[in-house]
């Protein structure tokens, strides 16, 4: 296996000097693996003549193989041998699975393989060493030790023996133990002790002390399926080679991610996602992303452990590498500083409960908090830089990559780079689609990326001279500017949809920004209120462009060798950053000044240059530095690293910029000032990790503790279309691709004045040699004062501590509540929110009480005047003060403290477009041309559906796009909710074009639509607040009325007004009316059923996988989307039908996955969890009862989320305060849900928790990738049986491994990859499935009492 | 655009079992037929249609067919199969249901060699009985499987079956019959025996197993193996055929029987006692010859039962007679020897119960 390593993608982490690397090599520590093979059972008959088997076992670890004796003539062999010992490297322990292969001994012929067992040793690595040792040496605090983090001590039990051609063939009993020398070497290559969780939330029973940030890794390797060797070996051999490779990759990615987490000072990675991209001939890409955190068990986190109850900060800082010594000192000063600076920027209004530390906030803080200069670090600083950061990232990276090879082997490098460039140009590599938050308005921007490419090409021809590059850059950029910047273009595009196609077709690279986040009716608002609208539009138009401007100019400045400029720029940017950060209410005032310059600056090159972002500067510096000292760089080093490294060395970019500026003689007052500003923090700065943190302020978690999220900005998403080419791809390219996307996502978030992206996900879909990469998340402002737990990056938000007093109300409340120690209340540690209510401990209850449901969550984090896009913001219906958007889309679970009216329900749209069957770059073009329309359709449909449902927000929204040969399918699935603070959506109105002759049918449809709306509102208990609240009602009505005018004028599709011109439109309207979910079912794609009243989750019933595959018969009559919709609807109905006996039940975490395996085939996989609901009213156990009563009490004090419904529907009884959600099922008692889950077997659930049970211990993260092939499909009984059997076997294997670890359940189960390749005429089939999750040991509530 | 579904599967972590559908599956009803049968009931739910029902039934059928492989080895799956998560009770229900059989089918295969050739004949049987051919085959295969596993196994056959197939005692007994009669090749197929049901023969078989085989605890214990010594001892019963003894026996029986019987039947006893006792003793004495053992049933019917039918004996008459016959003999000198006495008892226990069991009134016969 040749695994090419890619190290780029993030700064600082993997860029130690060579010496260090060598050190690492030396430092590898051996571990001892002991394996005992005990017995086998139910083995297949391998010797037909004797109807028996002569079995023996080969045990392979890394490159060492042991064998057992042959156990003759038995299908149930007993080996009972001594331990087999393996001495292996510690990295091997993580990378290599233990392979146990059962063989049948043949005297004359070659021995036959019976099957194999792969054992991932990672779960064993946690327990085998003292947990104190696993904490990186730099983290001095022993408090971080978490017994809960321990994994299984032994891995032993019966494992199904799996063969890729025959499935499970018997079982083998194995015991595995590991003896490890603890490795405290700082430079080790292994990351033992970092515990992995798929769970996208804080694991139950644990607290997150720190959230260190985003970690990711990527490995590109060859696919054995496409090796030449594959031609001569058996399918079994190939499959096994692949399976082994997948296991190794999964181990290696994990190890590397762990290493990064380790370097950040974390002890766990949560929200870990491992994906394999099967790129065919160009190989396999294994990607892992996660969130590095420091977890402690709840016990450890309890008051006694922290030295200072009130100020956990010092302790917390301890573990941070390098900065531990400083932290204590810093705290006081930092707080003081932050106070002062903060006060300068924003006079904190006392009533503000939560001060959202917006990105700028962090930036503003940065001076004060020594930890954090990062905000100013590459690209992270200003929220405005959305575009440039991305564009520039591309350019910078490309340039760097081109140049890097140059120093050492120039002759070679040039052609290659040229080729690469040409290719990238051809493909329109830069073609990308970024859509932001709730996107409705398509806006266009001419994307410079392509130009960059061109530029690159040119530049690449002359790689040695640094100066030409910037010049070229300038040229390219200015031209871009000309096209992109004029607001007119933008406005035009906004106004007329017709602009879309010409533009898109003209410019091969288009930035498609669906800006109008938050409000579908933004257009209307634009048009309606002329003055404000124009302002908005202006701001809006400028927004995307202005970022590009600065970036344009900074290069030129650099090229001219005017270093003073950059420095000025930097200071400016940092200022702007600071100003923009203030909390929403301040932001109106505070951010305005800062932002205003930008619009004005946009047209003007000079001013624009001021706002050049640091990251750009960074790149530039890097580039320059490179040209200067490229000799020193080893060619192997990856550009990104370089870039980062340069920044690392200087602690932060800002200082560097200064030094840079000063050296070049441009040191000015600004420079000085800046220096001054940063001088204080500097000592504390932790260079490496801090930059890293800011690089990607992403969290992969879905569920956050109460009070963690301050505000939602909205969903951000970026996509890019890439062309894969065999052999020419550098492994780094993948990293760059993702880097670009991440930068873009980040910049989107910044543009929304948000400091983090939550619920971050990365997906890819591959069709032939075209790959679509997507990254999405929810821009949000995170509460930093959430002390210990929730520092995103330790340094960055340390200042939050200081700002703790600001949320005085909040903390007061909490203190009041907790009669206990204050410190207890202060432990707003991230708690496992997803835990079922019944099982919540007192402490957790206390926590949840601490933060009463509040409306600020929904308030827009950005200033409306300068909002990044037209937002139809309305006064908050709860506090009447803040502004809320009319629609909110997020990719995370609904926070507990959100104020919800009614219940949530699944909302889904499917959009399907036909596509020409093209190859290569044509295909790429075809796809990228089509994507914007697809997304536009999806988002407008989802907004419209939302309106029909009477809801105003979507949580856990997942948008997936799949490309096939002839189709592109997009599916967006989310859980619709009505957030109380936000306005009720207007009922959509239909408008026919003038000539429409089918008025009658129109009114009919309109009526149906209205009926559906009314029905939905009734079913889900959504009572629009205008009924209660005249003010907001009138407001929304107003907007309602405004809409038509604009609608007609612009011809734009709007959420409220749906224009019906022809049958197609009518179809679209019909799609909005969803069939109702049968009674007794609650269907959502979240972890819980938001707002579920009167019922509670009693037990987990079933995890199910539904696979549907169909042949696509093109037919003219119906639209693609409509028929797809019809079938998915049918699938859902069939799901309800299959689960009909389980009512009342909830279907949670439904995941839809579409694949287009063939030109005329479509496959949909649905994974979900059925849970049993029971009436709360009848407490079975005393504890439950007391629990309920306590809950009630708390409800009286605080409005808990569910309680909100009472506003609309007064409590019917004392115990079930809300009306039973289905009267028809009141007679069904909760004990109707005892079995089938009972106490037997292994529960597997995609949820983060096991309903009706308590997680006692996490035993390890398991990932499996299995391949099943058959050459006798017909004999098996067709593909249905083949796949059915395979999934079944897979689950069996997973269960066996869980059991072997000592567990009895798996949470966060996922099925990522599901590929079925069929060749019916050859009677063949091959199926690949990737599954995984967290093995846990749970105790069922029944056991406890 | 339209879709024609090529695959639709639903797999759950806990295996879903539907009794009704399972029943149909076990009965060999095809999925499509099953849809027709269940349509009425299932469609009560609003919003469902035949398609969904069909998809559900197909899911179940697939699951069961995957399960079937395990059902062939039930004891193992009951304890530790990993492939399916099924509640133990349900699992056991599945097993019992799978191994349930139709009397008609097992009556048919009793005493037959469970060969592939005979398996082919099941078509006729299916036609005759109206039992689904698939079901017939399953039953045949079940019998064969059980037979194969248990046949050579030492120990009590019922226990062996329970241990290896996790069957109920009742069910296990039935399979024991199949194994016993099959392994010892009892002839049950003669036309004259056709009127006998599986249960009748099963009763006899168990009587034989209980009394004539090596049942004593020990390594030799095996109730598919005859107690040869005992059978040879039976040869000594020949002494009963001696004229004097026969007469003595006759008078003893008559005195015992007379008060309990109708005059007409008693008359018959008086007249034909010689024939009857010779028939019974003939059978008994010949049992050590395995050929005669195999024809035990036919002999009983031809030599004993048919005369009694002719004389219009009722079953009650028969049992009175047999009881008297057995105990009278014990009062005679001929059986003074303890061993012979015991042999007589063992022999007559089986013969009595069998004859009574096999004796059918005209009505029952039909």
From TrEMBL, chain A:
GO terms for cellular component: plasma membrane. One of its GO terms (biological process) is intracellular protein transmembrane transport. Residues 14-136 form the C2 domain. Residues 360-386, 484-504, 544-675, 793-831, 1020-1043 are annotated as: Disordered. Residues 360-369, 570-592, 624-656 have a biased composition (Polar residues). Residues 793-802 have a biased composition (Basic residues). InterPro entries: C2_C2CD5, C2_dom, C2_domain_sf, C2CD5, C2CD5_C, C2CD5_YbjQ-like_dom, C2CD5_YbjQ-rel_dom. PANTHER family: C2 DOMAIN-CONTAINING PROTEIN 5. This is C2 domain-containing protein.
């Amino acid at each position: 296996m040749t695994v090419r390593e890619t190290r780029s993608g993030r700064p600082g982490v993997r860029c130690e000097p060579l010496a260090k690397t060598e050190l690492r090599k030396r430092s590898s520590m051996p571990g001892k693996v002991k394996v005992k093979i005990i017995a086998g059972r139910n083995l297949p008959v391998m010797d037909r003549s004797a109807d028996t088997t002569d079995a023996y076992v080969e045990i392979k670890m890394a490159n060492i193989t042991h064998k057992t004796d042959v156990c003759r003539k038995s299908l149930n062999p007993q080996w009972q041998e001594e331990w087999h010992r393996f001495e292996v490297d510690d990295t091997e322990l993580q990378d290599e699975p233990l392979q146990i292969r059962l063989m049948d001994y043949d005297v004359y012929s070659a021995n036959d393989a019976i099957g194999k067992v792969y054992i991932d040793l990672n779960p064993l690595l946690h327990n085998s060493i003292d947990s104190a040792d696993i904490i990186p040496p730099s983290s001095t605090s022993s408090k971080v030790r978490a017994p809960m983090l321990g994994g299984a001590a032994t891995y032993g039990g019966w494992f199904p023996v799996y063969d890729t051609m025959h499935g499970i063939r018997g079982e083998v009993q194995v015991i595995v133990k590991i003896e490890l020398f603890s490795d405290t070497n700082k430079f080790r290559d292994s990351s033992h002790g970092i515990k992995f969780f798929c769970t996208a939330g804080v694991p139950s029973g644990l607290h997150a002390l720190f959230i260190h940030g985003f970690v990711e890794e990527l490995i590109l390797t060859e696919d054995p399926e496409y090796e030449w060797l594959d031609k001569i070996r058996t399918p079994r051999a190939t499959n096994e080679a692949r399976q082994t490779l997948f296991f190794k990759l999964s181990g290696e990615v994990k190890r590397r991610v762990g290493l990064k987490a380790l370097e950040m000072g974390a002890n766990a990675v949560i929200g870990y996602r491992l994906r394999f991209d099967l790129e065919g001939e160009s190989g396999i890409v294994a990607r892992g992303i996660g969130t590095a955190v420091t977890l402690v068990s709840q016990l450890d986190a309890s008051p006694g452990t922290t030295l200072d109850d009130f100020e956990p900060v010092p302790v917390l800082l301890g573990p941070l590498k390098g900065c531990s010594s400083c932290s204590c000192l810093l705290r006081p000063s930092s707080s003081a500083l932050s106070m002062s600076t903060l006060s300068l920027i924003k006079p904190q209004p006392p009533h503000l409960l939560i001060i959202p530390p917006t990105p700028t906030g962090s930036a503003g803080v940065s001076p004060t908090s020594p930890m954090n200069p990062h905000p100013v670090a590459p690209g992270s600083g200003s929220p405005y830089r959305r575009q440039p950061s991305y564009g520039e990232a591309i350019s910078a990276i490309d340039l760097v990559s081109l140049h890097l090879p140059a120093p050492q082997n120039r002759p070679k490098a040039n052609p290659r780079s040229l080729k690469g460039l040409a290719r990238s140009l051809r493909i329109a590599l830069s073609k990308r689609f970024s859509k932001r938050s709730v996107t409705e308005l398509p806006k266009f921007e001419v994307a410079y990326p392509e130009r960059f490419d061109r530029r690159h090409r040119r530049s690449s021809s002359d790689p040695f001279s640094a100066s030409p590059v910037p010049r070229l850059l300038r040229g390219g950029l200015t031209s871009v500017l000309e096209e992109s910047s004029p607001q007119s273009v933008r406005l035009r595009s906004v106004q007329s949809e017709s602009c879309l196609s010409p533009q898109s077709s003209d410019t091969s690279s288009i930035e498609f920004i669906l800006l109008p986040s938050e409000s579908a009716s933004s257009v209307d608002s634009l048009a309606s209120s002329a003055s404000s609208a124009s302002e908005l539009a202006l701001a809006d138009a400028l927004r995307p462009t202005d970022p590009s401007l600065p970036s344009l100019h900074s290069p030129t400045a650099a090229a001219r060798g005017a270093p003073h400029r950059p420095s000025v720029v930097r200071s400016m940017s940092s200022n702007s950053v600071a100003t923009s950060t203030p909390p929403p209410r301040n932001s109106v005032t505070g951010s305005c000044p800062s932002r205003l310059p930008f619009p004005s600056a946009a047209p003007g090159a000079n001013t624009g240059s001021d706002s050049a972002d640091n990251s750009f500067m960074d790149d530039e510096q890097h580039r320059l530095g490179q040209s200067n000292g490229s000799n020193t760089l080893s060619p192997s080093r990856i550009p990104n690293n370089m870039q980062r490294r340069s920044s690392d060395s200087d602690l932060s970019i800002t200082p560097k910029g200064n030094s840079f500026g000063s050296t070049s003689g441009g040191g000015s007052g600004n420079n000085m000032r800046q220096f001054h500003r940063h001088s204080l923090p500097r000592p504390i700065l932790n260079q490496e990790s801090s930059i890293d943190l800011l690089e990607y302020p992403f969290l992969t978690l879905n569920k956050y503790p109460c009070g963690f999220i301050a505000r939602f900005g909205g969903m951000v998403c970026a996509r890019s279309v890439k062309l894969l080419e065999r052999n020419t791809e550098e492994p780094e390219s993948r990293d760059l691709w993702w880097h670009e996307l991440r930068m873009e996502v980040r910049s989107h978030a910044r543009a929304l004045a948000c400091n983090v992206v939550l619920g971050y996900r990365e997906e890819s879909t591959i069709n032939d040699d075209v790959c679509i990469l997507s990254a999405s998340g929810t821009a949000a402002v995170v509460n930093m004062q959430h002390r210990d737990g929730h520092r995103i990056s330790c340094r960055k938000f340390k200042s939050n501590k200081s700002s703790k007093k600001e949320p005085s109300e909040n903390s007061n409340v909490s203190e009041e509540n907790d009669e206990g120690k204050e410190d207890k209340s202060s432990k707003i540690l991230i708690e496992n929110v997803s835990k079922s209510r019944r099982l919540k401990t007192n402490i957790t209850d206390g926590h949840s009480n601490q933060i009463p449901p509040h409306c600020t969550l929904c308030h827009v984090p950005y200033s409306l005047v300068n909002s990044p896009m037209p937002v139809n913001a309305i006064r908050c219906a709860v506090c009447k003060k803040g502004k809320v958007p009319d629609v909110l889309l997020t990719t995370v679970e609904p926070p507990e403290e959100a104020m919800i009216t009614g219940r949530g329900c699944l909302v889904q749209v499917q959009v399907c477009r036909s596509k020409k069957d093209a190859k290569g770059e044509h295909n790429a073009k075809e796809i990228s041309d089509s994507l914007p329309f697809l997304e536009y359709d999806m988002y407008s449909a989802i907004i419209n559906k939302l309106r029909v449902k009477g809801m105003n927000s979507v949580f856990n929204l997942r948008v997936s796009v799949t490309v096939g040969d002839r189709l592109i399918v997009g599916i967006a699935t989310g859980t619709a909710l009505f957030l109380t603070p936000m306005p009720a959506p207007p009922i959509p109105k239909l408008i026919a074009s003038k000539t429409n002759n089918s008025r009658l049918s129109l009114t009919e449809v309109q009526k149906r639509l209205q009926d559906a709306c009314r029905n939905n509102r009734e079913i889900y208990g959504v009572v629009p607040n205008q009924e209660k609240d005249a003010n907001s009602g009138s407001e929304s009505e107003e907007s309602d009325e405004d809409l038509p005018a604009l609608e007609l004028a612009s011809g734009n599709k709007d959420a409220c007004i749906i224009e019906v011109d022809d049958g197609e439109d009518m179809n679209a309207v019909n799609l909005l009316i969803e069939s109702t979910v049968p009674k007794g079912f609650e269907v959502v794609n979240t972890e819980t059923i938001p707002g579920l009243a009167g019922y509670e989750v009693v037990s987990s019933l079933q995890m199910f996988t539904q696979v549907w595959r169909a042949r696509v018969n093109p037919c003219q009559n119906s639209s693609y989307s409509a028929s797809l919709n019809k079938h998915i609807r049918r699938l859902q109905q069939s799901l309800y039908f299959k689960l009909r006996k389980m009512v009342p039940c909830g279907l949670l975490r439904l995941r839809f996955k579409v694949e287009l395996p063939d030109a005329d085939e479509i496959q949909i996989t649905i994974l979900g969890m059925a849970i049993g609901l029971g009436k709360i009213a009848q407490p079975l156990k005393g504890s439950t009862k007391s629990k309920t009563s306590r809950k009630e009490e708390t409800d009286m004090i605080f409005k808990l989320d569910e309680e909100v419904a009472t506003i609309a529907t007064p409590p019917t009884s004392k115990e079930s305060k809300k009306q039973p959600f289905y009267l028809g099922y009141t007679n069904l008692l909760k004990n109707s849900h005892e079995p089938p889950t009972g106490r037997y077997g292994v529960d597997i659930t995609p949820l983060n928790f096991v309903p009706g049970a308590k997680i006692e211990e996490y035993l390890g993260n398991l990932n499996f990738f299995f391949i099943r092939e058959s050459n006798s499909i017909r004999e098996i009984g067709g593909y249905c049986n083949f796949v059915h059997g395979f999934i079944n076997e897979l689950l069996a294997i997973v269960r066996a491994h869980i059991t072997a670890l000592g567990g009895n359940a798996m949470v966060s189960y996922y099925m990522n990859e599901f590929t079925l390749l069929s060749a019916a005429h050859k009677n063949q089939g091959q199926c690949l499935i990737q599954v995984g999750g967290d093995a846990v040991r749970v105790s069922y509530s029944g056991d406890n009492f | 655009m339209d879709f024609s579904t090529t695959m639709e599967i639903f797999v759950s972590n806990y295996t879903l079992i539907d009794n009704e559908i399972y029943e149909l599956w076990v009965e060999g009803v095809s999925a499509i037929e099953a849809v027709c049968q269940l349509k009425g009931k299932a469609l009560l739910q609003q919003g469902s249609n035949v398609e969904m029902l069909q998809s559900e039934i197909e899911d179940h059928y697939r699951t069961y067919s995957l399960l079937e492989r395990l059902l062939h080895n039930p004891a193992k799956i009951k304890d530790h199969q990993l492939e399916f998560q099924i509640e133990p009770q349900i699992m056991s229900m599945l097993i019992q249901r799978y191994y349930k059989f139709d009397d008609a089918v097992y009556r048919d295969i009793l005493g037959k060699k469970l060969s592939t050739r005979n398996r082919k004949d099941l078509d006729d049987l299916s036609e005759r009985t109206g039992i689904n051919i698939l079901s017939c085959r399953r039953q045949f295969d079940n019998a064969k499987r059980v037979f194969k596993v248990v046949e050579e196994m030492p120990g009590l056959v019922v226990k062996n079956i329970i241990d290896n197939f996790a069957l109920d005692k009742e069910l296990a007994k039935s399979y024991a019959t199949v194994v016993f009669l099959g392994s010892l090749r009892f002839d049950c197929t003669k036309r004259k025996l056709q009127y006998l049901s599986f249960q009748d023969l099963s009763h006899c078989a168990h009587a034989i197993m209980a009394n004539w085989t090596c049942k004593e605890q020990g390594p030799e214990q095996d109730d598919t193996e005859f107690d040869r010594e005992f059978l040879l001892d039976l040869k000594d019963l020949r002494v009963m055929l001696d004229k004097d003894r026969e007469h003595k026996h006759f008078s003893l029986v008559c005195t015992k029987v007379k008060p309990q019987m109708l005059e007409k039947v008693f008359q018959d006893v008086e007249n034909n006692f010689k024939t009857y006792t010779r028939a019974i003793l003939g059978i008994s004495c010949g049992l050590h010859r395995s050929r005669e053992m195999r024809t035990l049933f036919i002999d009983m019917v031809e030599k004993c039962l048919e005369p009694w039918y002719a004389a219009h004996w009722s079953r009650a008459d028969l049992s009175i007679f047999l009881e008297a016959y057995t105990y009278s003999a014990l009062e005679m000198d001929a059986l003074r020897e303890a061993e012979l006495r015991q042999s007589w008892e063992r022999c007559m226990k089986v013969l009595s119960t069998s004859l009574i069991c096999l004796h059918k009134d005209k009505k029952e016969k039909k």
